[in-house]
Amino acid sequence: MSISISVILAFVAVFAAMPTPSANNAIDPPVAPNKSAELKTKTGQSADLRGSPPEKASAHRELLDQAHSLGRIPVIVKLKTWVQPESMLDDDGIVQQREALSTIQQRVLDELSSRNGRDQAAMGIKRFALTPAFAMQASESDILELLAHPDVIDVVEDSIMLPFLMDSVPLIGGLDGAFLGYTGLGQVVAILDTGVDKNHPFLKGKVISEACYSSNVPALGATSLCPGGVSESTADGSGVNCPITLAGCDHGTHVAGIVAGRSTNASGVARDADIIAAQVFSRFDSASFCGIAAPCIATFTSDSLRALERIYLLRTSYPIAAINMSLGSGAFQDPCNDDARRTIIDQLRSAGIATVAASGNEGYANAMSAPACVPSAISVGSTTKADQISGFSNSAYFLDLLAPGASIYSAVPGTGYASKSGTSMATPHVAGAWAVIKSAQPAADPDAILNMLKSTGIALTDVNDITTSRIQVDRAVDEIAGPQATINTAVLPYARAVAIAETATAFASVINSGDTTALSCLIALPTGIPATLSYQTTTAANVLTGTPNTPVDIAAGATQGFVFGITPSQSMAATEIPLVFDCTNTAPAPSHPGLNTFILSAAAIAPPDLLAIGVTPSGDGVVRLPSSTGIGFFATAAVNIGSAGTVTVSADDGGRGLPLTLRVCETTPAGEWIVCGNSLTRLVGADQTAYFTVFATGTGQPIAFDPANNRLFLRFASNGTTVGATNVAVTAP
């Protein structure tokens, strides 16, 4: 690799095998039907009950009464077929199981259609690919036919659930938005809710896949909230929040912010995780359903089930750590083994994906809602920031975890933020924690993560003397990761500008601050950059060594130098590239603009290319103001290794809004001032070196010592495009 940098003034080196399902997530085999009871309807028709204890017979009567009154009602038809976790099957077995399920669905539907004269569209059929069931809008006679069908185990209500209405991150062990350096990078959390405002500044760039599942049920006054009123969509924009004129449509955005929001001043639990947004709610205009708050929103079980199946099918496309379900209904004093979503939640857990669900907000002392009550789901209750169990939080002997859920500040649609309380807010703390732990230990399965969160959490006891762990994520990360390699990186120079097909080279240092060797470490480009990257190791004196493009091990406590080159294949406006530094046994190095990112621009004709290095008086890359109103500075030498051209020189704080005023002065090599201003414009010849000093004056507020984030930038622009830049850290008492 040829190196175009001739002078360096300073360089600051800053699916394992699937587990056997445990007893609590194995699928119960179907029970042989008991036809000893007969059900009489208001129309005089009768049907045999299948395995019907008194509570099931009562549920059937209520279902038939609703259908008699309303005409057609949403139900879920459970089928008599055995479904195994797909992780236990080979590829042929998976295909055969899915085909068998499709066959039995079709058989039941064909026979029902032949009797009622309606096709599947008229019956509002929702078919499931993995769950032994289907959903439909059934008449009274349909329900009777289905209860009598030999392939049907049960017909149940397609129940309706409501949404359970970031200063909490440090409480669970976060420091600067990270947990021992882990931030959920490389992990994805799916959010089944009211949709996510993906354009909110706190969530910009986070949503990588979208879906919508919503229903039109005339008998209940329900209409779909999917784009165009369709019942399902996976198109771009399908996962956005429902209209904020409907109460509760800000819920999903708030939840998403808790999971993975990120800004310069705050972050969610897993600040570097991505999001799959699934909008699963429908609009209800029935005053009898909504009460005084018509219209309102709620979700059908079948729609959340369809979304869960969608997430399962995406598991091979994205590294999905967890699913967040801050919604629910009902009160279950024991695990709800019969919930229609159990099969798919079991499948997800067997595939290594946790379904994290809110326990509910009714303040029950001995019950929780569905789907949190599903045995293989991870149920979550709420605590206050004073580590008291929230009074509204449902509790039960089988509740899994607690997390902060009172007065949680997060994003709402638009650009704003709001505080909300509820187990809905506690649940995304756990889903985010799942992503953080998976970024620390990608092979960890849901059982291991749950056990670790329980054993390392803060034990809290409720009024029933039930003790549950409030998550303490840093402890869990420390425990589950064991001896760790942890890498941090620095890049110099910060910016280059080249011609198309010309290679821009720079240096990188990778520091292993962990206690074990970092294995097979490499440098790569993120997706979507129209360029190629090559790299090679160097000695401490920046002499090439090793083999090009070959990963290298880095011993604990050691620093490895690299030289890398990026060759653009087309013109590029100045693009800040978050380079990927990764090793096989570490989380990727966290990305910090100016510290280990790289700005690259490319043009048809070679532009100016200023190689700029900033130097502070202390020599350690930190400007230290003597007081909150004091003055500090750093000096820069910039050599133009590109074409001659006019450049504009300016200083900024990277958008942090630090309490500073900045001024740029051009100087002689000896530091004598030539001209000063907020920005300067000058002609720089090829191979010419220019000298500048940036002065920073405090405006009366302290600046925390946070060198990864609090930085000062000196930028060089030509024709509006960055052609050089350097930066240093800043702090003030």
Q: Could you explain the architecture of this structure?
A:
This protein is an alpha+beta fold and 733 residues long. It has 4 domains: 46-158, Alpha-Beta Plaits (2-Layer Sandwich), CATH 3.30.70; 162-481, 3-Layer(aba) Sandwich (Rossmann fold); 483-604, Immunoglobulin-like (Sandwich); 607-733, Immunoglobulin-like (Sandwich), CATH 2.60.40.2310. The chain contains 10 helices and 44 strands. The chain has a 10-stranded mixed beta sheet with strand order 11-9-12-8-15-17-19-20-24-23, sandwiched between helices. A hairpin with a 5-residue loop joins strand 23 (458-461) and strand 24 (467-470). Helix 4 runs parallel beside helix 8 and helix 8 (423-440) packs parallel to helix 10. The two termini are 45 Å apart. Residues 1-52 have low confidence and may be disordered. GO terms for molecular function: serine-type endopeptidase activity. Keywords: Hydrolase, Protease, Serine protease, Signal. Residues 23-55 are annotated as: Disordered.
